[in-house]
Amino acid sequence: MDKKLRFGILGCAGIAIKDVMPAIQKSEYGVLAAIASRNLEKSKSVAEQFGITTAYGSYEELIEDKSIEAVYIPLPNHLHKEWAIRAMEAGKHVLCEKPIAMDSAEAAEMAAVAKRKGVVLAEAFMYRHHPRWHRIKEIIASGELGQLRLIRGSFTYNNAEDLDNIRLRPEWGGGSIYDVGCYPISAARFILGQEPEAVTVHGQFSDKHYGVDMMAAGILEFADGLALTFDCGMWTEHRQLLEIVGSEGRIDIPHAFTVGDEEDASYTVTIRGESRVEGREDKADPYTWEVDDLAKAVFGIQPQRFTPEDAVQGMRVLEAALASAREHRRISLK
């Protein structure tokens, strides 16, 4: 197929420059067509770096560009709703960084606009698009692990000294739950194909870091006694893992969420004490798959893999997790 989806990038965020823009360039169905920044010199510099012909000094100019078919939004969380809606109202498809919004009400508003305008709105949880997850879900569905009993996930890193970081702005949707706790929470919902019934989270909030949750640990209760136990943090040693535990075996997935082209995508399957390693050859950039999956949905090649409704449900869980940590109580999601 010769057609390419023409992407415009709203902002020069690190994740755009390091991960998503190179992914669009490598993708089968996407092409970088424009970039916008509130600083024209900055957007021109990034445009030159990537060989983009069009650079704008405002987000509005890019939104008004009728040649742009899709917009990628890597802006801070509190700006997601405004600019996603403005792009969709202009008839553009939207790939919006996670979490898609500040809360489920915002996410629902965004989903409603996407439906009304007939455009594709996708939340950029790139890990789900990596091809190894198809195989992992096959193993689970085969019954090889027996009855699923537990999912355990961790995602932590340390940027506690970077006091100017936008992740430390509570009014901008900062904090560890929204930044990295969202990954094991998303993975549990994805693996189980269901929503949790309740959530209980204990958080460590720091006055030095403007009151955001710098660390959190919690449990999500699913039907039939299944649970996700997770921890996340922004002031501890880097850790990243997901463990799927069944009555007869388990799957251990290091680099569960940020595995890239050159990183080890392998995982270990252990059945009754016997272990094997799979996924060594799964060299794939999940960002590229994410871009192509959106484009395929736009072009009608395949249905959208993860719908706006899924993003709304995910925000329900995230806002409940943060509320539970702040209020020291179990929150029912039934």
TrEMBL record:
Gene3D superfamilies: Dihydrodipicolinate Reductase, domain 2, NAD(P)-binding Rossmann-like Domain. The gene is socC. Residues 134-251 form the GFO/IDH/MocA-like oxidoreductase domain. The keyword Oxidoreductase applies. Belongs to the Gfo/Idh/MocA family. Keywords: Oxidoreductase. InterPro entries: Gfo/Idh/MocA-like_OxRdtase_N, Gfo/Idh/MocA_domain, GFO_IDH_MocA-like_dom, NAD(P)-bd_dom_sf. Residues 5-123 form the Gfo/Idh/MocA-like oxidoreductase N-terminal domain. It comes from Paenibacillus woosongensis. This is Deoxyfructose oxidoreductase.
